[in-house]
Amino acid sequence: MNVLVVGGGGTIGSTVAYTLAVQQPTIDLTLVDPRTDAARGHAIDLRHSQCHAAHAVGRPAFDGDRPGTVSAVDPDSRTGAETDPTLVDDADVIVVTASAPRSPDSFERGGRLSVLERNLEIAADLGAWFADGEPTPTVVVANPCDRIAHRLWEASGWPRRRFLGYSLSETARLADELARRADGDVSPSDVSCPIVGEHGEHMVPVFSRATVDGEPISLSADDREAILDSVRSIPYDVIEMRGGADSSRWVTGRGVALIVGRLLEGGTDGATGDRGADPVCLSTPLSGEYGLEGVSLSVPVVLDEGGVAEIVEWDLADDEREGLEAAAEAVRASLE
Ligand SMILES: NC(=O)c1ccc[n+]([C@@H]2O[C@H](COP(=O)([O-])OP(=O)(O)OC[C@H]3O[C@@H](n4cnc5c(N)ncnc54)[C@H](O)[C@@H]3O)[C@@H](O)[C@H]2O)c1
Ligand SMILES: O=C(O)C[C@H](O)C(=O)O
Fold this sequence. Notes:
This protein is of the alpha/beta class.
């Protein structure tokens, strides 16, 4: 199995790669980044992280299997690859974290949009490269990820089901917030509240499907507003606390690696072969689902080895449906 991380020299790309190397140490990782030395440095360090079987405490990690390879590829060698799509063809899953650098206006709430124009250009360039290759499931992390996933899809000409914009960190943050509001009586792993819509200000928590310990919960309008406010703000608090250069790498690295793992296992839990009862919310181009088209937004999807196997249409509460429509309008307007 081979995972191609486009932007693998950066913070999130390298964290995704590390998480995959720990979670599934036999997969092969390929990092592509114009910051060639950074990508090479990560590749060497990651390879070493897989060599702990050389001593007694590292041996159980591999259980006799060979560790996967880790390599860094200079995008200049991809210039040849614009007509020679080997890297794409060799990949089972692609992760796109390629992004313009953060600027001070990206440190504040809503800051995902500050890189829109520059990242649309990167997406158009990557899409032209992908177009020559075999359509491959692609997890889009680069922000603003709904718009970037949509542009990549358009530029690649691949089936829409190959594109999955990553927004699950918000779902994890919401679980943490709900559990903490329960005064520590509830574990975040017993909380479930999906989020649809934009990865950003127009996220729409589906409170009508929120459960704790499998039981539906009811929250006041004030509580909902306060929770939403917190989930919108917290990634920017984290960026500020880390001095501006570094965003939420751990929750994102783990979440993206979990999605990649699912795709590599054909949409199932590799250990049990179980597809799970619940769909997962990821951003994908819509074509009439929820009455929306011409836009990518997070909606509940069932995964298989090719990406999105099915978009599930939930019955949403009126305010949730209105929120989804507002998200579609905002995302569409900024792409015109
Ligand atoms: N969706 C999410 O939940 C989520 C979470 C965290 C970060 N992000 C986003 O992920 C992106 C990456 O964040 P980061 O902190 O790793 O940034 P970063 O600046 O550390 O890394 C971005 C990397 O992309 C590389 N790059 C630029 N153009 C490229 C190209 N054409 N091909 C390959 N690589 C290219 C850069 O050289 C850089 O190494 C940002 O847009 C960020 O906002 C999204
Ligand atoms: O990169 C960012 O601006 C924040 C990121 O989208 C996140 O949710 O952590």
